[in-house]
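We emphasize that the prediction below concerns an isolated chain of 314 residues; any contacts that depend on oligomerization or on bound cofactors are therefore not represented. The input was used exactly as deposited, without trimming of termini.
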Amino acid sequence: MFIPEIKSKVNEDISILLKLDNHSHHYICECGDASELSVKDCQNAHAIFLSHTHIDHFINFDTILRHQIGIERKVIICGPKGIIQQVQSKIKGYHWNLIEKGSLTYEVREIIDKNTILIYELEPPTWEIKTIGKLAKNTLFENKKFQVNFTILDHKIPSIAYLFREFDTVKIDIEKSGFKGGKWVRDLKTAFENQAENTAIEVEEKTYLAKDLFYLLNIKKGNSLGIIMDHAANEANHQKIKNLFFECDKVFIECFYKAEDKELAVANFHSYSTQSGKIMKACKVKEAIPVHFSRKYKEEDIELLLNEFENAFF
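Result of the prediction step, given as a token string:
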């Protein structure tokens, strides 16, 4: 299950850390000026997901970079078209004569369109762009636990919304079987996943057909989590959000403005409280969390904004 933690305070630029049960690495979504993002959080990050590079979403990349130098492994950065030059420009603002190759590698995945993801690498001390190629499929990121898909929203520039989807897992009821655990459990799960009903499964010196033991198994549905940052609250964006995030378990969505500031939202290609709430309701999201409020608001303004969102969502 995904364990998200908002690492920015209400009056700070947004940053969200994702953890998973029984998983050693963390994942950073947005590089806002987050005072609660620790050195360990940065060093354990396996990938960084950026919606876009307006200053309030990219300002803290330098601090993350500072803490990752010396971890001696690869970190993946995902973002919209142009992200490779912007990451490189940030890095090249510093001297690196005392940093050796191998202390850190960034693999940058640049989302050009829904079917095109280009891959590059950056390494010290020169940090020159090395072209690696393209992803063979439009899944942006994948490991044994989960995969990440995306949609490109309009914020007057491309803004990437991310869907993290945990894979379904096969569980077994050992107590129900009356047997002790062992290799047979893995063999049975493999047979189930491959729909190999007639596979011979040896349990405690007796052989069974896999299909005769399938009753011990059940599928645990994977968790899903969405990150939807800056976007215009228009029909085209809302349709893309519906297509990707329908029935998502949990979504963090930007609510930059109150409803009375709708004109500002339209002018600045942002969403606002009631529209963010309505689109989450239309998506039948189980839990929707409004985030990323304009810093012009005081505490009582944000409280009103949250009430507006909740009234539209529920």
